[in-house]
């Protein structure tokens, strides 16, 4: 099914568009034209040597060997000439292949870099809609398909030179025989076309199966803990085996096609052409003297005429694959719509950290509204907490505020200015986001805190770690701040990762903190460290915090209770409890003693009322 989709897609690219894609792909070759010109010169030289070598032998055979005129000096001269020709051939082959590979590999490197750069700028909406596996495939598989695509051109280039040069010489020597050889060209081209038509289906099917195999492997590595926990090993192994079987079957089909058509058909035609050529020379010899060396050289040119076809047949399928891969890569490179854009002349800076939402609405897919009419103000230094059941829209508010997604109606203001008036870099710098589970990058603790920003000194890193009290666990690590971190940071507990991410945020000195409180179970000691870290980070900073445990945001200046994307209640902890509404219910559910807590607080504030 997926295979059908893929080949249907290949077919569905209109011819004009295919040429356009090829044209765009050629642009990547432009900066490396020196290498490509070198390759063309090499290919031309190769074609020349391929003509010259049989010619040298022909002269030697017909002028000296058969006429008994050979002397040692002549033999040595011809041997030297032939050896020089062979050396030149090796050199031309090297120049042609090296130049071409270098040019194409550099072009591919540029392509991968651009693609990766583009992916980094795409909005989250793109990533929501595109499976990670397929993005990885664009950057790795598709760019390596492009390598095959470039090679097709090399094959075509070398093949054409060889075909044309040998035909021209044949035409000069024996025009009629040359035309007989030429008569095979339409048959050859038909075989090439037919093979290409047939094999591209088989080939694509094979690649599809390989991709499925990769996906299965990826899935089983990423989900290994779930697989083991739910004892899915057998199912996964069976699925992998089935896909592997399918892959083998498609490989077999490919091998069958190749064995049948690839070399054999061309060889058959070549032998037929040889028979025709030899018969023609045989007939000619009945009337005129035909020199043996000439026949030898001529048959070598016939071989030069036919040989490139096998290569071309083998490679042509990559042409279409290259266009498909190219079109998919360009779809990423041309993708503009999803990345939230700032105003062109955005240059404001965040100085106070006031945040205001004015009647903001938002839909992830641009259609189904998730946030409705969200309005609130967080004055500089204040804490606004977002609470609500799962799926009520808390993270979505943060997502639009961080400009991961473009919001619909309404306005988001920072320091009373439109959020789009600030350059993205300013927003990323001054809005410090701390997520539930923070990602750690391959490197060490220190680089993960400074986030590879070389302007941040070791002292600042350590200071930040101390500030959020992450230093106590870091000091115990082997290598301390230089302790290795593997991608994802899975060697650390979620509490430790949180503390590192706090340090990472603090060191950047943001004006506004955006927190997604961790729900994971963390031991009491780390929990206390985290709460203390949060308290310290919040000091003097505007904070927008998603809170799952209501006890942690009792001191917030404003609590927004969300339900189905709407703010249904707002106020301070005490005000909301007094309301006996949604917040009260949630609080009671969590503590089981909301009213008691309220009572406690009342007594705390006013001890004499207890009597
Ligand atoms: N990337 C997304 N694409 C489409 N819909 C989404 C996406 N993320 C969230 N939603 C939907 O938006 C709604 C609000 O989700 P959101 O994550 O904001 O809720 P939340 O209150 O943060 O929930 P939780 O407490 O579970 O994190 C949900 O219905 C959810 O299915």
From TrEMBL:
Record domain ABC transmembrane type-1: where: 37-321
Topological category with respect to the lipid bilayer: Multi-pass membrane protein
Residue ranges annotated for the ABC transporter domain, each copy included: 355-589
UniProt keyword list: ATP-binding, Membrane, Nucleotide-binding, Transmembrane, Transmembrane helix
Intracellular or extracellular location(s): Cell membrane
Protein name: ABC transporter ATP-binding protein
Membrane-spanning residues: 36-60, 72-92, 152-171, 177-196, 259-283
Organism whose genome encodes this protein: Lacticaseibacillus pabuli
Transmembrane as UniProt keyword: yes
């Amino acid at each position: 099914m997926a295979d059908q989709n893929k080949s249907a897609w290949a077919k569905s690219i209109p011819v004009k568009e295919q040429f356009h894609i090829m044209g765009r792909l050629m642009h990547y070759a432009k900066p490396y034209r020196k290498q490509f010109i070198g390759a063309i010169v090499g290919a031309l030289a190769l074609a020349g040597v391929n003509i010259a070598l049989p010619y040298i032998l022909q002269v030697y055979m017909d002028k000296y060997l058969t006429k008994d005129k050979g002397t040692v000096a002549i033999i040595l001269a011809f041997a030297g000439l032939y050896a020089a020709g062979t050396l030149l051939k090796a050199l031309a082959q090297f120049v042609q292949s090296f130049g071409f590979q270098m040019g194409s590999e550099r072009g591919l490197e540029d392509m991968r870099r651009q693609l990766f750069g583009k992916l980094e700028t795409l909005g989250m909406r793109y990533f929501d809609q595109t499976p990670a596996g397929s993005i990885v495939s664009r950057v790795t598989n598709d760019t390596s398909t492009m390598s095959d695509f470039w090679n097709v051109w090399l094959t075509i280039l070398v093949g054409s030179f060889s075909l044309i040069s040998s035909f021209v010489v044949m035409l000069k020597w024996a025009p009629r025989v040359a035309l007989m050889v030429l008569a095979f060209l339409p048959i050859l081209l038909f075989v090439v076309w037919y093979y290409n038509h047939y094999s591209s289906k088989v080939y694509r099917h094979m690649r599809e199966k390989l991709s499925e195999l990769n996906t299965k492997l990826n899935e089983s590595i990423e989900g290994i803990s779930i697989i083991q926990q739910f004892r899915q090993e057998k199912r996964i192994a069976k699925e992998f085996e089935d896909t592997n079987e399918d892959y083998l079957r498609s490989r077999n089909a490919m091998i069958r096609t190749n064995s049948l058509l690839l070399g054999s058909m061309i060889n058959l035609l070549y032998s037929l052409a040889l028979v025709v050529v030899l018969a023609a020379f045989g007939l000619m010899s009945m009337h005129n003297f035909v020199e043996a060396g000439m026949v030898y050289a001529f048959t070598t040119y016939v071989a030069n005429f036919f040989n490139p076809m096998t290569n071309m047949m083998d490679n042509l399928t990559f042409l279409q694959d290259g266009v498909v891969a190219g079109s998919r890569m360009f779809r990423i490179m041309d993708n503009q719509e999803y990345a939230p854009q700032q105003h062109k002349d955005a240059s404001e800076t965040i100085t106070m950290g006031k945040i205001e939402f004015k009647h903001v609405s938002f839909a992830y897919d641009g259609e189904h509204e998730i946030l409705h009419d969200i309005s609130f103000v967080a004055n500089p230094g204040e804490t606004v907490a977002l609470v609500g059941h799962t799926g009520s829209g808390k993270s979505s508010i943060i997502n639009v505020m961080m400009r991961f997604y473009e919001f619909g109606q309404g306005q988001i203001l920072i320091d009373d200015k439109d959020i789009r008036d600030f350059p993205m870099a300013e927003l990323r710098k001054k809005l410090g986001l701390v997520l539930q589970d923070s990602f750690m990058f391959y490197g060490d603790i220190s680089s993960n805190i400074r986030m590879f920003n070389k302007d941040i000194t070791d002292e600042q890193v350590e200071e930040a770690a101390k500030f959020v009290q992450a230093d106590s666990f870091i000091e115990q690590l082997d290598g301390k701040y230089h302790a290795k971190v593997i991608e994802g940071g899975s060697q650390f507990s979620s509490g430790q990762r949180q503390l590192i991410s706090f340090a990472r945020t603090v060191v950047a000195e943001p004006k506004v903190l955006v927190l997604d409180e961790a729900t994971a179970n963390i031991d009491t000691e780390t929990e206390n460290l985290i709460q203390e870290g949060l308290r310290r980070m919040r000091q003097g900073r505007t904070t927008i915090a998603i809170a799952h445990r209501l006890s942690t945001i009792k001191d917030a200046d404003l609590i927004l209770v969300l339900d189905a994307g709407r703010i249904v209640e707002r106020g301070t902890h005490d005000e909301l409890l007094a309301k006996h509404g949604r917040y009260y219910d949630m609080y009671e559910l969590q503590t089981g003693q909301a009213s008691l807590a309220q009572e406690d607080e009342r007594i705390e504030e006013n001890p004499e009322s207890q009597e």
